[in-house]
Structure formats: structure tokens, C-alpha cells
Design a protein that fits this description.
Helices cover 47% and strands 21% of the residues. The chain contains ten helices and seven strands. The chain has helices spanning 6-12, 30-38, 51-63, 96-105, 107-110, 124-133, 166-171, 173-177, 183-201, 207-233, and strands at 21-24, 44-48, 70-74, 88-94, 115-120, 136-146, 149-158. The N and C termini lie far apart (39 Å). Strands 3-2-1-4-5-7-6 form a seven-stranded mixed β-sheet, with helices on both faces. The chain is an alpha/beta fold and 234 residues long. It has two domains: 6-161, Rossmann fold; 183-233. Bound molecules: S-adenosylmethionine. S-adenosylmethionine binds next to strand 2, strand 4 and helix 4. This is SAM-dependent methyltransferase.
Length: 234
């Protein structure tokens, strides 16, 4: 078995038994190798836009003797897939904007998948907004802390979900609903991030910077309110 990082283990737990998974931007190929070794997936597709990562994936796949069950594909995003070929699409370790662009570029493939498992490194709010605006619902969300970094995992399935307040999209509606154990850490980090942005903006006397500062202050206020509600509910 592979000694998988906590982050990749977290992604793996959302892959339903018996599904064919496509790992887009697979790099080392650890996730599909693990899922096939475990028997969760009868088959998998490991894809990457760059040759080097795909060669690394090939070497790991050969090492674990799963080459008959994993297809390696070189190419951009979902363009390597035929519609319906993968039940579950995993895109992890890239910016939220890149993930959104990948989904947007191949609607015929994206729409045939039953589940996306996404782990953006930034711009989570924009990715959530994109999903909800395009007929996806957030089935689940996870937070995990590894080496001091907080990662967000979004699990999306086809469905309708109302786009709530912008701040909820920023935090993660399912994380709030399930009062995730790391939610207070997540909110605190968001507050600290916006406080740093605010300090920068307040050095400026330009009208546009001052308007932006007001918006950031409002956001910090909303985050503090949610943080206080969370503390009082414990
Ligand atoms: C930081 S690695 C993440 C690897 C793995 N998914 C993980 O989470 O550990 C990002 C990988 O995505 C690949 N990549 C970036 N843009 C891509 C795209 N548009 N299509 C496919 N792969 C892409 C890169 O070559 C790189 O191997």
C-alpha cells in the first residue's frame, strides 16, 4: 500500500466504491494507484498536462503493478476524457480559477460525471460560486490541516442549490452546517488574511483603496459574527 498524505487520504474517502475515477493533474499518480490497490476503483485514468509528472506517475504505477487498471493520458484538463468515461473527476492541488477553467472548457465531459472531488489551493469562493451557478450542488465539504496548511475539499454532484450570501461561499456552506472541528481555525485564518489586506489598503489615500477597505471591513465584521455564533453554540 502507498503511504498517502492526509490530504490525498481525505480525497480518496469521497470516491464511491466501484466508480471509475479520473485524476486530472495527477502528478505522481498516488491517488489513482491507491484507489485501485484498495479495490475502490476497478479502473482509473491518471492525466496530466506535463510529461514529467506523467512519467513519475507511470513509474509509480509500474512499481505497484497496477498498469493494467490505470490509463495514463497526456493532455489539458478534461480534454483527455470521452464523455461518460469517468464517474468521478478529481482535480486537486491547483488554484480554484484553474479548476474552474478546466471544468468550463469541457462541459460535455463535466456534465457526464456524477461527482467532482475538488481541492483548490486558493479562490475557493469563486469555485463554489461557479459550481452553484452551473447546476452543481455541494454534496459535502472537508477541511484538513497538514503541515500547518489548511486545505479545503469540495465534493460536488448534479443538483440545484441556492447561492447564498457571498460570505457563506467563502467559508463553505457544508462546513458551517456540520460545524466542522476546524471551522473556527478556518474563520480565524480568513479574518487574519483580511486584516492584512486591510492594513495595506489603509496606507493608501486613493478613493478606490478606501472603498475597498470599507468592503473588507464589512467582510471581517461578517466573519467575526459567524465566529461568535459558532463559539456560543459550543
Ligand atoms: C501541484 S500538482 C498536484 C498533484 C496532485 N493532484 C495532488 O493533489 O497531489 C498539479 C499538477 O497539475 C498538473 N496540471 C496543471 N494544469 C493542468 C491542466 N490544465 N490539465 C492537466 N494537468 C494540469 C501539473 O502538471 C501538476 O502535475
Amino acid at each position: 500500500m502507498i503511504n498517502l498524505s492526509e490530504r490525498l487520504k481525505c480525497l480518496a474517502q469521497f470516491v464511491p466504491n466501484g466508480s471509475v475515477v479520473a485524476d486530472i493533474g495527477t502528478d505522481h499518480g498516488y491517488l489513482p494507484t491507491h484507489l485501485v490497490l484498495l479495490g475502490t476503483c476497478p479502473r482509473a485514468i491518471a492525466a496530466d498536462i506535463n510529461k514529467g509528472p506523467l512519467e513519475a506517475a507511470q513509474s509509480n504505477i509500474l512499481q505497484y503493478n497496477v498498469q493494467d487498471k490505470i490509463d495514463l493520458r497526456l493532455g489539458n484538463g478534461l480534454q483527455v476524457l470521452r464523455p461518460g468515461e469517468a464517474d468521478v473527476i478529481v482535480i486537486a492541488g491547483m488554484g480554484g480559477g484553474t479548476i474552474r477553467d478546466i471544468l468550463e472548457a469541457s462541459p460535455e465531459v463535466a456534465l457526464q460525471a456524477t461527482r467532482f472531488i475538488l481541492q483548490p489551493m486558493a479562490d475557493e469562493k469563486e469555485l463554489r460560486a461557479y459550481l452553484l451557478q452551473h447546476g452543481w450542488t455541494l454534496r459535502d465539504e472537508e477541511l484538513l490541516l497538514e503541515d500547518g496548511r489548511l486545505y479545503q475539499v469540495l465534493v460536488a454532484e448534479r443538483g440545484q442549490e441556492e447561492i447564498g450570501e457571498s460570505i457563506l461561499l467563502e467559508i463553505g456552506p457544508r462546513l458551517i452546517e456540520k460545524k466542522h472541528l476546524l471551522l473556527s481555525v478556518h474563520i480565524r485564518r480568513l479574518i487574519e488574511k483580511y486584516q492584512r489586506v486591510l492594513m495595506g489598503l489603509q496606507k493608501s489615500t486613493q478613493e478606490v483603496a478606501l472603498r475597498k477597505a470599507e468592503h473588507i471591513k464589512e467582510k471581517i465584521g461578517q466573519l467575526r459574527k459567524i465566529e461568535a455564533e459558532l463559539l456560543s453554540s459550543h
